[in-house]
C-alpha cells in the first residue's frame, strides 16, 4: 500500500474547519484527482481533535492529519501530478483559506500494515526477555 499524508499545521489563534474540509474540500479534491489523473484512493482517513501527551491541543503542531491510502504507486504519481499542476490544483489551493490557516505539509510513501498483533507482542516479549527485562 501507499499513502499520501497531509498535515494541517496549527497557527495560534486560528481554527481548522473540519466540516468544510469533509463536506467540500476532500470531495472536491478526490473528484479533481479522479478527473485529471484517473486515480482514486482505496481509503481516506483523518485524525482530528488532536491533543499532545499532556492532553492539550497547544502541545501538538497540527490540527489534523489526513491519509489517502492507495493500492498502487500510481496513486502517488497521480497525486503528485495533480499537486504540481497549478491549473488543475487551483480550486483546491484557493479553498485552503476556507478551512485551514496554513497550507498543508504533504508527504508520500509506502505503508506497512502490521496486522498480526499477537505475533508482534510475542516478538516484543522475546526482545524484552533477551534484555533481561
How do the helices and strands line up, and which of them pair or pack?
Layout: E1 2-9, H1 18-37, E2 43-47, E3 62-70, H2 73-83, H3 86-95, E4 105-110, H4 117-130
Antiparallel strand pairs: 1-3, 1-4, 2-3
Description:
This protein is an alpha+beta fold and 133 residues long. Helices cover 41% and strands 21% of the residues. It has 4 helices and 4 strands, in the order βαββααβα. It has helices at 18-37, 73-83, 86-95, 117-130; strands at 2-9, 43-47, 62-70, 105-110. It has a 4-stranded antiparallel β-sheet. Helix 1 crosses helix 2 and helix 1 (18-37) packs antiparallel against helix 3 (86-95). The longest helix is centred in the first third of the chain and has 20 residues, at 18-37. The chain is flat and about 60 Å long.
Strand element count: 4
- The total count of helices amounts to 4
Could you spell the SSE succession in H and E letters? EHEEHHEH
Task: Please tell me the overall pLDDT.
Answer: 92
* Shape call: flat
Structural class: alpha+beta
Which sheet architecture does the biggest sheet show?
Answer: 4 strands, antiparallel
Helix share bin: 40-55%
In terms of quaternary structure, what is this? single chain
User: Strand order of the main beta sheet, please?
Assistant: 2-3-1-4
**Percentage of residues in strands:** 15-25%
Amino acid at each position: 500500500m501507499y499513502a499520501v499524508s497531509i498535515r494541517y499545521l496549527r497557527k495560534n489563534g486560528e481554527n481548522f474547519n473540519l466540516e468544510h474540509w469533509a463536506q467540500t474540500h476532500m470531495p472536491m479534491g478526490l473528484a479533481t484527482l479522479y478527473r485529471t489523473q484517473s486515480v482514486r484512493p482505496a481509503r481516506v482517513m483523518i485524525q482530528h481533535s488532536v491533543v499532545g501527551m499532556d492532553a492539550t491541543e497547544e502541545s501538538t503542531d497540527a490540527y489534523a492529519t489526513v491519509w489517502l491510502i492507495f493500492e498502487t504507486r500510481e496513486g502517488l504519481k497521480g497525486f503528485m501530478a495533480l499537486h504540481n499542476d497549478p491549473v488543475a490544483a487551483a480550486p483546491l489551493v484557493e479553498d485552503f483559506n476556507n478551512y485551514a490557516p496554513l497550507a498543508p505539509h504533504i508527504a508520500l510513501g509506502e505503508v506497512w500494515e502490521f496486522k498480526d498483533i499477537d505475533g508482534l507482542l510475542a516478538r516484543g516479549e522475546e526482545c524484552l526477555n533477551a534484555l533481561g527485562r
